[in-house]
Amino acid sequence: MSHVKAGGTSKNNRDSQGQRLGVKLFGGQKVSVGEIIVRQVGLTKRAGKGTKLSRNYTIHAAKDGIVKFNERRVRLFSGKSVKRTEVTVE
Known about the structure:
Elements: E1 22-23, E2 30-31, E3 36-39, E4 45-47, E5 51-53, E6 59-61, E7 65-75, E8 81-89
Parallel strand pairs: 4-8
Antiparallel strand pairs: 1-3, 2-7, 3-6, 5-6, 7-8
């Protein structure tokens, strides 16, 4: 027979690392080609002129310039019109 009592198990020891999402360059800042402007999950912000959208919805600069954020209305599939933020490089 064992003379050591059974050790308990811990259930709350799992935690994932942060994904480092968010806006990396803000309005008015200079940007060069290929730099990341916004890292996001889903289309919370839209890519406008001078930017490109990658497969994981990251918005990159397609040309050198200055970052600008605009509000614009987008029509959803249901026909509803909602405001969305558009990122452009000028």
